[in-house]
What does this fold into?
Amino acid sequence: MKNLINICIMLPILLLVLSSCKEKSTDPENITISELADYYLVAEHKTGSNKLFVLSFTKDGNVVKANGHLQGLLRMHEASMENGTFNFDYNSDGKSMYSFDLEKGSDGNLKLKSYDFIYNGTGGQLSQAVLVKKTDAFSFTNKMFWVFALAFQIETPNSTDVLQWLDGKRFPVYRLDNIGFKSNNDEFLGVLVPDWKINGQSAKVMLVERGDSVFIGVTE
It folds into this structure.
């Protein structure tokens, strides 16, 4: 009987401790902005002349900079996090606002819970967005990517990166770290995505935007 009484006394305490631990493991306030330096975000707009949005992060001492790439455009802001939500005001005028809600999985990696792009007060303007760990970005040098019957690859002749299409067209490009590239004339924006949804199926792709179109390059 005494043991039973002790169990009854300890059980609520044990449940309280377990509940506290569970809440702590999923508490968005445990995510720090410095953790985002190991990741990048890729999103696709539903409408507009710019379709792809690539958001990468760099550390400068104790400061984390967010680099927002659109085709032919770049905005750099100091990054901050509030309750697991990262916001990026592209033109710093409140009109083009990206919002990403994050959580930390049991493995310690960050996950994207939800996302939105709000333009002039109207949201729901992204068709898809993913959070990618930089170490998951695979090498793309001299790797062939197929867009239907056409293919392209990034070559490096004479230490200069070139976007080479199978039809013979060549464009000088510069790299966005190990995650993608931009062309010198702002004609192309490319980004690696190890887990992009195509008709409900995940695929390892290189997304390439030219004009107002996004081409999905698939590799083996």
Q: What stands out?
A: Residues 2-26 form the longest helix (25 residues). The first strand starts at residue 39 and ends at 45.
